[in-house]
Amino acid sequence: MKSKTLRGWYAVHRWTSLICTINLLLLCVTGLLLIFHHEIDDLLGQGHQSAAVAAGTPRPTLQQLVDKTLAANPGTAMKSLSFFGEDGDHFVGVRIGPPGVASLREGTSVFYNADSGDKHALGGDETFTGFILKLHVNLFLGFPGQLFIGVVGLVFVLSMVSGIVLYGPFMRKLAFGLVRFGRQWRIVQADLHNLSAIAVMVWALVVGLTGAFLSLSPLIIGVWQKTELADLIRTLPAAAPAALIAPDRAVQVAAEAVPGKDLAYVFYPGSEYATARHYMVVLRGHTELEKRVFNIAVVDAETGALADRRGMPWYMQVLLLSAPFHFGDYAGMPLKILWALFTVLTTLATVTGLIIWMKRSRNAVRQIDAAEAAIAGAALKEQA
Q1: What is the pLDDT of residues 170-184, one digit of tens each?
Q2: Biggest alpha carbon distance in the chain?
Q3: Residues 192, 189: Cα–Cα separation, whole Å
Q4: Segment holding 57, helix H or strand E
């Protein structure tokens, strides 16, 4: 590689690394906590565990949970149902909001034990890890903060790519991964920086790209709404139903249309992810990765007939699959530990890189001061 090209790549690596350093450290710390969010929630008593349900207890219908929620919150309308849980505990989230408002953000959720119908006190945003997730995703700045984090992710990816380009020329005369202990501390720091960075190279690129992609989720979902959902609205009857069938009936129709799947969501007619007339029933697979692969059954909310059945477009599937790869929560505790180790190595590479730059900057300042002092001394001698 020519020296001019090498200097160019070095400048790219230095400045992209410096630009994202502080935010990257924050993302590493919060990301490390989020890897173990289930375990932290359980430790703090903020998980979704519930009391055992006595044998023979009748399971409440979805309509009963909806009626209970609306009765306790007069003046609201149904927006959606969400289904979650593991290890035998199953919960239903009932989302309500102002009548006539399509946005799901304009509302609140009430959670129930799906087996007993008992109200469940905690929602995701009220937990410690829910707080950490907001900090990690958007710095509590909403969509602008989310876009900013996405830009940081892209800058980080560019920093990693430039670091990979530089690693070969700088280490061509040394053994791969060598740390020269016993040399000057600055050399040891540089070797530790290079080693930790190259060790997490592939992982960091995956996490950086998936994180940047996830930060664009509102825009990607907007594209889906403007294309796939708009196509449904154009091709299916749009008249609002005279009366709604129970969501239990819509779920039954969807399960028959897409067998062997679990429930994920039921979006009510008039909400932002459904048409004005239809339930949008979203189903998913059983394994950790298949849980992010969604199928949609569109059910007429007045007649109960299956109106359409679709999969998600490729860009939505990529978005949904980015989350488990980003947080490492699709293969149990061993993968979580590996993700945590890579996060620690990324933090080490970031810290050592910052220390190297700071020391180099101080050395440069001292060299400039010495040169100016020498020039001033020479001028005084000439005057004398």
Answers
A1: 666 666 556 666 666
A2: 106
A3: 5
A4: none
Instruction: Tell whether the model's pLDDT for residue 187 goes beyond 50.
Output: yes
Which tokens go with 367? 């060299």
One-letter amino acid at 69 equals T
Strands of 262-267's sheet in order across: 119-120, 108-113, 91-97, 77-84, 262-267, 278-284, 294-300, 306-311
DSSP string, 100-114: T---TTSSEEEEEET
Q: Is the pTM of this model over 0.90?
A: no
Query: Counting Cβ atoms within 10 Å, is residue 366 exposed (0-12), middle (13-18) or buried (19+)?
Result: exposed
Q: How far apart are CA 78 and CA 264, in angstroms?
A: 16
* Contact assessment for residue 98 and residue 106, using Cβ atoms and an 8 Å cutoff: yes
Task: Give me the residues paired with residue 282 across strands.
Answer: 265, 296
Asked if residue 304 lies in contact with residue 241, where contact means CB atoms within 8 angstroms, the answer is: no
Provide the CB-side half-sphere exposure for 225 (13 A, CA). 13
Cβ–Cβ < 8 Å for 300, 271: no
Residue with tokens 């700088």: 170
Exposure of 289 in the CB half-sphere (CA atoms within 13 A): 3
Question: What are the structure tokens assigned to 161, written together?
Answer: 């790519």
User: Which alpha helices (H) appear in the chain, and where do they start and end?
Assistant: 3-35, 37-43, 62-72, 128-138, 142-171, 185-199, 201-215, 217-224, 230-235, 247-257, 314-327, 332-383
**What pLDDT score does 99 carry?**
93
Hey, what are 316's tokens? 């939505």
pLDDT digits over 209-222, tens only? 999 999 999 999 89
- Locate 279 and state its tokens: 């339930």
For residue 111, the cross-strand partners are 93, 120
